[in-house]
């Protein structure tokens, strides 16, 4: 196992992004993991290219709330990649379900 391997949780699918009081329907790919060194859960991902988001964010960092069918969280959008997919990241409770016991981990694996 390398120093960058993590047991990651995640969510892929539709979501709603609230940026500057504007709701935007998006598609997102999210992942996350618990960081034992500082004790925080870190989640992150990419928002599929979206013209409305691109016009609103204009390539700049923005605070945002993301809502999925599994939950919501506050995070930050950062610079888009060359394919106009914005990165989103946050710390603490993620906008997706995280297993809290080994029974839940085994149930999602099967």
From TrEMBL:
Domain DUF4873 spans what residues?
8-98
Looking up InterPro entries in the UniProt record yields: DUF4873 (IPR032371)
| Annotated organism of origin | Amycolatopsis marina
Q: Which domain of life is it from?
A: Bacteria
Protein name in UniProt = DUF4873 domain-containing protein
